[in-house]
Amino acid sequence: TRQYMNEAFQSGAMTCLICIASVKRNQAVWSCCGCFCIFHLVCIQKWAKDSLFLVSSPLTDDDFGKKDYPWPCPKCRFEYKRSETPSRYYCYCGKVENPAVDPWLVPHSCGQICEREFKPSCGHKCLLLCHPGPCPPCPKMVTTSCHCKKAKPVPRRCSAKEWSCRLPCGRTLLCGQHACENPCHAGDCQPCPRVSKQRCICGRQTAERLCASPQWQCDQVCGKCLPCGNHTCEQVCHAGPCGDCPRSGKRSCPCGKTKFTLPCTEDVPTCGDSCDKVLECGIHKCSQRCHRGPCEICRQEVEKQCRCGKHTKRMPCHKPYLCETKCTKIRDCQKHQCRRKCCSGNCPPCDQVCGRTLGCRNHKCPSGCHRGSCNPCPETVDVKCNCGKTVIKVPCGRERTIKPPKCKQLCSRPPTCHHPTQEKHYCHFGRCPPCRQPCQKTLTCGHLCPVSCHDQALVKQAGSHQSAGPWEQPSEPAFIQTALPCPPCEVPIPVECLGQHEVSPLPCHSANPYSCKRFCGRLLDCQNHTCMKECHHVTKLNTNADGKKAGPECSQCEEECTKPRPAGCPHRCVLPCHPGDCPSCLQMVKIKCHCKLSVLYIECLKLTCADLKEKELLISCRNQCPKELPCGHRCKEICHSGSCPLNCSQKVKLRCLCKRLKKEVQCNKIQEGQVSLECDALCKEMKRKAHEIKEAEAKAALEEEKRRQQAELEAFENRLKGRRKNKRRKDEVEVEQSSWQKYKNLIMLPVFGVAVVMV
């Protein structure tokens, strides 16, 4: 309920049923305690006042205001007293007057604990926060027994504390003879359902009756003789004695002043005194003698004052006195005067009908004349669906804005297309929806049209209105309903292409031989190539011919012969593309010999047909091979292929390592390492002396370098110490020559001489 209230207030769907306006969060409201419907406080006050007026309008002036008539709730008709008419704005629980608007609380809630007693009352109170609607069932846990008290007590919710053990009740019924056979139940046991013969109270009649009602009365008068012996009992079937005669004992006269003791057979006479009973006026007494029957009306003349208190007059007491003066007070409608003759000042509500036109524009206000705006029209109008079988009642005036009810009946209109029946759809206003059944008309090809029905298609009407100029606004396009022709047949038909390459399903309306866009691929007359034209029709000249052979429509082969040539033949076939083998090649081939010095001309056929030995002889120029061997000498063989042999027989000079000794031997032996020349003792001695000379030169160079560095160091130190004051003078450093520098020329000359002699 709380969630519904929040969503209703947020969406503006909470509506007051009296004024048909939205109920806001900040407006004073009143909630019915029967149906918990919410109304504006001002609207419910006006409703209560109008309801009381309509109930009390048929009353007379004397009865007005003497009886407290109730007023009902506009929705559930729960009746409230006049004193219960709401006058102040309270929250749902009734604790806080004029509750503040809080966006975090339910609208019109105070946010405190409800503490209203549960209904039906169980002694507990609601612990929820102030909320609309009824309080939930009591959630307290209590220990209770079943209705018949036979089962053990069990813990249950207080709201469902009454439970049945489903065992037979067993309590003694009101007849006192039988026990209750119903399952354990709440409240008193039902009357005994058994039937028995029972006598009436007086015992004269016997009848079959329910055991639950043993005492019953028959329709006969008792008729027993009373103790007086003169009269009989006039009571209908009763129990016990009939009692004394009602005419026995002391009896009073009609006026009650005198008592007589007479036999029951004689009537009581009048006493002859005045009656003195108070008349209907309540003031005077009856002046007649003691009499039987009612007293007459009061006929005494008295001074009477009229009801408005302005005039007096003497007249019989039983007649009321009303003057002719009309009341000039304004009634509660604040529009009309009272105009009632001899008004007592307590003017009744205005008895005139309001008569203003209501918001529905169809009826006039039937309420009594009132202040403020009129209530909504109380009349209802039936809003029907198109077929009239579904009807809803709406307030008068809203039938123009409310949507027609949704009818669950099927539309009964006849079809507008060529189908015998239309698709099933619910009752509606306006045109029926377009027929979606398959057309199923027979096309020219013999197939049935599979598309949806197009007998009532909407087509845009072009050029129906010519604008007068650019200032005229373009109008919306007009649509007309017309029957469209069936579309082309789309049933797939297997069709073979022109070149018989494939079979494809084509729509029936375009099922003709077609080009598959592939190459024709048929073998031409050359037996080497295929037709490169796009897929096309081929005429078969011979019915027994192969289906893969080219026809007259295929292209002619204009290519050169591309058949593979014999191995080694670099020439093309002199014939155009042809079937069978190519002719022998008779062209002369220009080719160099093995040594690459001579150019030879040989027939291509001889060259390609020769074996390795013959080809070796054909390509040789018969001259000495000009290639050099690894040793540096020329090859002695005749022009040949491949690498030259390594058996060089030319004589060469062989020297020792120091180049002093020499010897003539064959070149191939030197290459093979079979011959070598070693140095003798003299060679070794010369080699040792040369080594000593190199060491002496290296040692002298090292000493010279050390001496130079020492001299530079001393000169640098002298410059730092300031020993040389005259900067123009130059340091003269005398360097003593070493022994090697002095005698190197004398040593090197003999050594070089010996070496030259050895060479």
Automatic annotation (TrEMBL):
Residue stretches making up the NF-X1-type domain: 122-140, 175-194, 228-247, 281-300, 308-329, 333-352, 360-379, 417-437, 526-559, 569-587, 631-650
PROSITE patterns, per database record: ZF_PHD_1
SMART domains: ZnF_NFX
Record's keyword annotation contains Repeat: yes
GO cellular component: nucleus
Record CDD domains: NF-X1-zinc-finger (cd06008), RING-CH-C4HC3_NFXL1 (cd16697)
Protein's UniProt keywords contain Zinc: yes
Molecular functions (GO terms): DNA-binding transcription factor activity, RNA polymerase II-specific; RNA polymerase II transcription regulatory region sequence-specific DNA binding; zinc ion binding
Top-level taxon of origin: Eukaryota
Keywords: Coiled coil, Metal-binding, Repeat, Zinc, Zinc-finger
Coiled coil region boundaries: 679-726
Family: Belongs to the NFX1 family.
Listed name of the protein: NFXL1 protein
Native source organism of the sequence: Pomatorhinus ruficollis
